[in-house]
C-alpha cells in the first residue's frame, strides 16, 4: 500500500522508488527529487508537501524516530512541489538507505480512517485486529497487480498459522516454525519458500552482570557451542551457521573473515576452570513468541552443563521481553537482530554503542549497559556512521565485529532464513530478504 522514497533491493542496496534521485547539498543537507506522475489511491498527486506531512506523522507517532534517523522534527521541508529537503543533525552519508525502511512509506496527508498510499494495492476492507483486504490499484504506474484480491489475516500463534495452511483456510503462512517446515515439504499439497535475511540469531551476553562479566567464562561458553548442529538439528537445516553478530547478507558484514571458536568442549572446560566462575546459575532469557528459541536454549544449556556451567531458562512474554532484556536482568538473552532497510547502520549502533537502544537504559542509569564492549567500540561505530563509502564503513564496522567476537560479547548462532509455507498451487512470492518489502504483485494460483 505504501512506498518510501528509496527502495531496498534484493542485494540490500538503495534504488530509486518515489524519489528518482537524491544528492547531498552539504554535509548535513539532502535533497530528494520526486518521481513524476505518481498518484495516491484517491487520485491526488504526490507532492513534496505530502511527503513532509507523512514524515511529520511518523515523528508524531514515534518520538524516538528523529533521533534514529538523525533528523529533528522540523528538519523535513518542501523546496518546491517536487523537491524535499532533509536536514540531519550530523553528517550521515547512509541517510538515503535509512529512510528506505517501511516506517517511511508515504501516506496521504488527509488523516482519514482508510489508509491511503501510492503502492500497487489499495485498501478495500479492514477488520480491526483481524484482517485487511486489498485490491489492485488500477492506476498504478507500473501496471495492475496480478491478484484480484489479497486478504491478510492476523494469526498470532505460529503453530496456528501452520494449521490454517494445512486446512486450506489460508494460501500462504509467514514466519512459520522451522521445526514444522519438513512436514510441509513432504505434503504433496503444500511447499515452502526460504531465503536468507539480514537477521542474525545470537545470544547477547551481559558484560556487566556476574558471572558473565568474566571474559574467560564468556569465551568458554562460545567454545561450547556448535552452530552447525543448531542449524541442522534445531532449525531443520534452514539458515546458515553464524560467525558473528551481523548477517552475511549485509554488505559491510565480515562474516567470512571472523574466527570461529569451536566447538571444543575440552578447551571450554579449561577456560571455565581458569575463570572466576564458582557454580552460579546463569539466567537465560527467551521470548515466548519465537517458537524455536526454547529448543535452542535447551540445547545451549545442555552444552553448558557439559563444561560445568549451570543455567536456567526464563521464558518471557513478548510485551515485556525487551524491557527485561534492556534492564539487564539476565546473563544470556536469545535475540534476533536484523535490518528492514538498505542502510543497516542503525543496527550496529542499537546493538553495541553505549547509547544504542539495547544498552542506553543501563548506560544512563549506572554507566554500564548490556553487551556494549566499551568506548573504543563507540568511537568505531561513530566513525562508521560518517564513512562516505562502503570500503571505509566496512573497515570501521568490521573492527567492531571482531572486538565483539573476541571479547565474547555475543554467542553467534545462525543467520536467519525466512520460511513461507504455501499451498502447492500458489507461486510468485517475491524472494526479497526483507519480509516487509515483499510486494505480492506477482502472486498467482494455478487453475
From TrEMBL:
GO biological process: peptide transport
Superkingdom of source: Archaea
A Pfam family annotated for this UniProt entry: SBP_bac_5
UniProt-listed InterPro entries: Peptide/Ni-bd, SBP_5, SBP_5_dom
One annotated Gene Ontology cellular component of this protein: ATP-binding cassette (ABC) transporter complex
GO molecular function, one term: peptide transmembrane transporter activity
Coiled coil start-end: none
Keywords for this protein: Signal, Transport
Segments passing through the bilayer: none
Main location: other
Compartment(s) where it occurs, according to its Swiss-Prot or TrEMBL record: Cell envelope
Domain Solute-binding protein family span(s) in chain numbering: 15-357
Family note: Belongs to the bacterial solute-binding protein 5 family.
Protein name: ABC-type dipeptide transport system, periplasmic component
Amino acid at each position: 500500500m505504501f512506498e518510501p522514497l528509496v527502495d531496498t533491493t534484493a542485494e540490500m542496496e538503495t534504488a530509486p522508488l518515489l524519489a528518482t534521485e537524491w544528492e547531498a547539498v552539504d554535509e548535513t543537507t539532502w535533497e530528494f527529487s520526486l518521481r513524476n506522475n505518481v498518484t495516491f489511491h484517491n487520485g491526488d498527486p504526490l507532492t513534496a508537501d505530502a511527503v513532509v506531512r507523512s514524515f511529520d506523522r511518523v515523528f508524531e507517532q514515534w518520538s524516538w524516530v528523529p533521533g534514529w534517523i538523525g533528523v529533528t522534527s522540523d528538519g523535513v521541508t518542501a523546496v518546491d512541489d517536487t523537491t524535499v529537503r532533509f536536514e540531519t543533525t550530523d553528517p550521515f552519508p547512509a541517510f538515503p538507505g535509512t529512510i528506505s525502511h517501511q516506517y517511511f512509506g508515504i501516506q496521504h496527508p488527509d488523516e482519514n480512517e482508510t489508509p491511503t498510499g501510492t503502492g500497487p494495492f489499495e485498501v478495500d476492507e479492514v477488520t480491526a485486529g483481524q484482517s485487511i483486504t486489498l485490491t489492485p490499484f488500477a492506476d498504478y504506474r507500473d501496471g495492475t497487480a496480478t491478484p484480484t484480491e489479497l486478504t491478510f489475516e492476523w494469526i498470532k500463534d505460529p503453530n496456528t498459522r501452520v494449521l490454517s495452511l494445512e486446512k486450506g483456510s489460508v494460501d500462504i503462512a509467514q514466519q512459520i516454525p522451522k521445526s514444522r517446515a519438513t512436514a510441509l515439504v513432504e505434503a504433496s499439497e503444500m511447499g515452502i519458500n526460504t531465503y536468507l535475511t539480514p537477521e542474525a540469531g545470537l545470544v547477547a551476553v551481559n558484560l556487566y552482570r556476574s558471572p558473565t562479566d568474566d571474559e574467560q567464562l564468556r569465551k568458554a561458553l562460545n567454545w561450547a557451542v556448535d552452530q552447525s548442529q543448531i542449524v541442522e538439528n534445531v532449525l531443520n537445516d534452514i539458515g546458515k551457521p553464524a560467525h558473528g553478530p551481523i548477517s552475511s547478507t549485509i554488505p559491510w558484514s565480515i562474516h567470512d573473515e571472523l574466527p570461529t571458536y569451536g566447538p571444543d568442549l575440552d578447551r571450554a572446560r579449561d577456560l571455565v576452570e581458569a575463570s572466576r566462575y564458582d557454580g552460579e546459575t546463569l539466567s537465560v532469557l527467551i521470548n515466548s513468541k519465537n517458537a524455536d528459541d526454547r529448543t535452542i536454549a535447551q540445547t545451549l544449556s545442555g552444552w553448558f552443563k557439559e563444561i560445568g556451567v549451570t543455567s536456567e531458562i526464563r521464558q518471557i512474554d513478548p510485551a515485556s521481553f525487551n524491557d527485561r532484556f534492556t534492564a539487564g536482568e539476565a546473563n544470556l538473552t536469545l535475540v534476533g537482530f536484523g535490518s528492514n532497510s538498505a542502510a543497516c547502520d542503525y543496527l550496529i549502533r542499537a546493538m553495541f554503542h553505549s547509547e544504542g537502544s539495547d544498552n542506553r537504559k543501563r548506560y544512563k542509569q549506572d554507566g554500564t549497559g548490556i553487551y556494549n564492549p566499551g568506548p573504543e567500540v563507540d568511537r568505531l561505530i561513530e566513525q562508521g556512521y560518517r564513512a562516505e563509502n562502503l570500503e571505509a564503513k566496512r573497515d570501521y564496522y568490521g573492527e567492531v565485529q571482531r572486538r565483539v567476537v573476541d571479547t565474547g560479547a555475543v554467542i553467534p548462532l545462525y543467520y536467519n532464513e525466512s520460511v513461507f509455507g504455501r499451498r502447492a498451487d500458489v507461486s510468485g512470492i517475491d524472494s526479497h530478504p526483507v519480509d516487509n518489502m515483499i510486494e505480492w504483485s506477482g502472486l498467482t494460483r494455478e487453475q
